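Section 3.1 - Work completed
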Amino acid sequence: MGYIKFLGTAGARFVMISQLRYSGGLFFSIDGISFLVDPGPGTLIRAGQSKPKLKLNNIEGIFLSHRHIDHSCEINLMIEVMTEGGFKKKGIVFAPSDCLYEDPVILLYCRDFLEKIEVIEEKKVYNFKNLKIEIPGKHRHGVETYGFKLTKDNTTISYIPDTSFFPELIEYYKGSDFLIINVVLYEKKENIAHLCLSEAEEIIKGIKPKKAILTHFGMTMLKNKIWEKKDEISQRVGSQVIIANDGMNFEF
């Protein structure tokens, strides 16, 4: 069916700034359809250095979960890459309205290169080629933020980007076969709108995916060597848990 390439697994500003982990977002290839998710700092470089090399001119869409720099700063660059410098009008960008109107991160001149811009709305379903992209609900993250449930041939792959925890998240992403979840914090910190490990575990236990992939790590996750804890986490949640690393390919 396809694979996901993790071009970066950095979360929060300090890991991103120091580049202890890369911050290039996610590259999806499903049944020959290629698209990017959250092109943060270094997306083009990491994609170019990927082995096997990614065919960036085949990208047909970009999904922007929210406008924070570590998720969006190479969006205009990757629009140029996707459209071959603007000479080939193609592709769709999915983005929240505030990325376009309130505090825009997508430059006006780049918008003309695209076939279409879809303004993300909660509870809406989009058809992208032969894929179904469902936006189950708005996240709680200070700026307009959305994840997605992507379905192809009765398989659902979901992405939970940055958010505070709230119980409805479990209902939003129920029915996911594979779950990618951004987990910045090892332990909960008040007034920080990111998930911690125990909250991520509660979500996974509630959703019961076949496999859950943790990514987007902050400093405390790295200091606690989260990659050494995947087996005990898997036992606690009752699903196989994978700890993403930079450049990892996940095939499904």
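Second construct:
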Amino acid sequence: MSAKEALTLAEKSNLDLVKIAPGANPPVCKIMDYGKFRFEQAKREKEAKKNQKVMEIKEVRLSLNIDTGDFNTKVNHALRFLRDGNKVKVSIRFRGREMAHTELGIDVMQRFAEACSETGSVEKAAKLEGRSMLMFLVPKASK
């Protein structure tokens, strides 16, 4: 029907004429209460936002020659972050002559990943970027 007919029909029923697909040929319109439509749309968006979980990235810094006590403390921190549903960024910064022994850093990272394997899995494996080695852990999907 023509736009004028649709507009008079909408005015008769005390509703609004809303273009649904203005790019179509001919344009597609719908007769509805626009205020109510906007209210329900905002309500749906708010509900969707409420159910959404924001995942933060927490960082745990290790050193190349870390001792067992410190290592276990860092693992416990990472496990707590993973249980809370956050990503964990594990980093080792190489200083001076440590750059010649990056394989030791990979060993420390693998040990760390094994220690966190119950609650988290490796998203991005250990990779050397400049003077630091980075690895990302994500929480395992809970059933």
